[in-house]
């Protein structure tokens, strides 16, 4: 099931999407104003979750590590992106003044469904609501300059997510791709993940409690590159859909 969050007639609502039709989730019928369904063309699609935190994973694709000539990490390399960076489908990624190169990074994102603390890997799927597309936008020059990643990863608009959450999906073999202005830039599979989804959920839950709606961004494949004002960047995850965002200068 694809779960969608949207705004319609100045009301925020939740529904499930089938094709171009949106149907109310149980308990959300009133937000549809007496309609039994809505068209996706008449609503504003919002970020499908409002996380308390985004836990992202660095260097988690074998082919990306090979591209960079780096050794595989012995444990997941995790960092945080703030919820203030979140934007939704067709929102603008804003390139801050004076930051130099800003890159796209296509990723599969995991959305947590219930509070998770010290979860063993074999039980991780019980705590996952579903999966969505994520773009780990990064100010690359600042990442290199600072020697740590907080500033480079945390600007407003640097966490596009969406367009919806797919709740029925096996994350072990999904194609992850990025396009810029229609040109394919990244193309790999989650079979190349060094640490697969259950291991990531478990590892992170032993470090920090994960709450419903929190996001784990599972890492990016090879082919990251710069964005420029006027670009259209798309992240596509097999079985989920395509997240489209526009790029503009500040």
Automatic annotation (TrEMBL):
Superkingdom field: Bacteria
Single GO MF descriptor: acetylpyruvate hydrolase activity
Pfam family for this entry, one: Rv2993c-like_N
Domain Fumarylacetoacetase-like C-terminal residues, every copy: 53-247
GO BP annotation list: carboxylic acid metabolic process
Keywords assigned by UniProt, alphabetized: Hydrolase, Metal-binding
Limits of the Rv2993c-like N-terminal domain: 1-48
The family this protein is said to belong to: Belongs to the FAH family.
Protein known as: Fumarylacetoacetate hydrolase family protein
């Amino acid at each position: 099931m694809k779960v969608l969050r949207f705004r319609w007639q100045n009301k925020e609502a939740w529904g499930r999407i089938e094709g171009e039709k949106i149907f109310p989730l149980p308990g959300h019928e009133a937000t549809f104003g007496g309609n039994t369904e809505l068209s996706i063309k008449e609503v504003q699609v919002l970020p499908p979750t409002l996380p308390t935190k985004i836990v992202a994973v660095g260097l988690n694709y074998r082919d990306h590590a090979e591209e960079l000539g780096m050794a595989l990490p012995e444990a997941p390399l995790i960092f945080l992106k703030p919820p203030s960076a979140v934007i939704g489908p067709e929102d603008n990624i804003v390139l801050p003044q004076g930051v130099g190169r800003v890159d796209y990074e296509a990723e599969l994102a995991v959305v947590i469904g219930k509070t998770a603390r010290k979860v063993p890997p074999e039980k991780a799927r019980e705590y996952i609501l579903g999966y969505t597309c994520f773009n780990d936008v990064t100010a690359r020059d600042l990442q290199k300059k600072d020697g740590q990643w907080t500033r480079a990863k945390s600007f407003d608009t640097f966490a596009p997510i969406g367009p919806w959450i797919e709740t029925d999906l096996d994350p072990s073999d999904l194609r992850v791709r990025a396009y810029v202005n229609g040109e394919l830039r990244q193309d790999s599979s989650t079979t190349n993940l060094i640490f697969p989804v259950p291991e990531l959920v478990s590892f992170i839950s032993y470090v920090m409690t994960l709450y419903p709606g929190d996001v784990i961004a599972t890492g990016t494949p090879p082919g990251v590159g710069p964005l420029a004002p006027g670009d259209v960047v798309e992240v596509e995850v097999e079985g989920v859909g395509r997240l489209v965002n526009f790029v503009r200068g500040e």
